[in-house]
Amino acid sequence: MKLLNKMPLRLRLTILTALVLTVICMLLTITSVFNAQKIYSVPAEDYNSNTSPSNPSMNRPPVTEDETNNDFTYASIVYMFIMIVLGTCASYFIAGKALKPVADLSKSIENIDESKLFQRLEGFNTNDEVARLAKSFNHMILKLEKSFNHQKQFAANAAHELRTPLAGIIANIEVLQLDENPTVQEYKEVLEDTLANAQRLSTLVHDLLKMNTAFNADHFVNIDVKEMFDVIILALSESSKDKNIRVENNISGIMLSGEKSLLQRAFFNLVQNAMKYNKRNGEVVITAAQNDDVVTVTIEDTGIGIPEDELEHIFEPFYRVDTSRSRELGGSGLGLSIVKTIIEKHNGNILIESEVGNFSKVTVMLPKN
Ligand code: ATP
Ligand code: MG
What we know:
By secondary structure, the protein is α+β, with helices and mostly antiparallel strands. The protein has three domains: 2-111, no CATH class; 136-211, Helix Hairpins, CATH 1.10.287.130; 218-367, Heat Shock Protein 90 (2-Layer Sandwich). The protein contains eleven helices and seven strands. The protein has helices at residues 2-6, 9-39, 44-49, 65-110, 129-178, 184-211, 225-235, 237-242, 260-276, 323-328, 335-345, and strands at residues 220-224, 246-249, 255-259, 283-290, 294-301, 349-355, 359-367. A hairpin with a 3-residue loop joins β6 (349-355) and β7. The chain is elongated.
């Protein structure tokens, strides 16, 4: 059976059909030989008693019962073998015809590699299993193509983002090298600039790693949502002072189950955005509500808002509405992408409503347990 499984499907089908054919032919032959022996055999003595002097042909030597039977059996066996051989050849031919679409499909699939993910299987328009397989394959290749392009885009963006601070560091050092007698002040400036760039690199690498952090549901703990936001607001208090932004934490008595460091990171990014993209003397209001299964947290700011047509993109890695302004504010465009990854890892949902020049409101829904 193992040997059979290793054979091509066409050969396997042919061998199985030949086996069935052989058994049927043998049974038929045995039955007919057995019946012939019973019904058509003429005993020799009957023949002898019927000889007639008027009919010389009747006077030939008698054909015995054994001889008749032997001839019939011999002929039956020969025909049986001929039938088996013909039947096997026919089944090999028919199996080839029936499996041709499968062979075509496999040939078309072999032609698609990672550089041809845009290609689709065409010409399988029948309504059978092969056409369904081709359709599923096309569907899978579409998803692969999207994911492949996404990865390529991500790698290109990551390289671009890493290149900018690295180029800054190199340029600073080269300028210093050209100066024959740099002053202490110049050294200090270059060091400060290099430190800022290195910190930017470090945050970027940290964020990229965070996006690929393995999720472990065993690390789930009960989290007091109000306390978590108090910690976040305290950590961001310096930046809120700069623009004189008032942050209101209106949460009380709401608990949530999740991986604490990850959720804290997600909400930190959201509150940070609400402050960063706010106006001078603006406001950030944080609220939460719960029902039996879901905790809903909202973070609303009175900031610059996001244009409607940009809303669908802002969760994409490295996407920024106003690139130069966001970079000026120290953003790399990974914050919301990390938030979405974390919330989805907790089986939650996130949505943003906004009006340019007026407000942005982020709603996060998380399963309570
Ligand atoms: P990072 O968070 O990585 O430091 P970032 O803040 O630029 O950088 P995201 O947090 O992913 O990146 O945000 C993506 C873009 O969405 C931002 O550049 C900004 O243009 C826009 N955005 C996000 N939150 C708000 C908000 N509350 N108000 C207005 N615009 C926002
Ligand atoms: Mg951000």
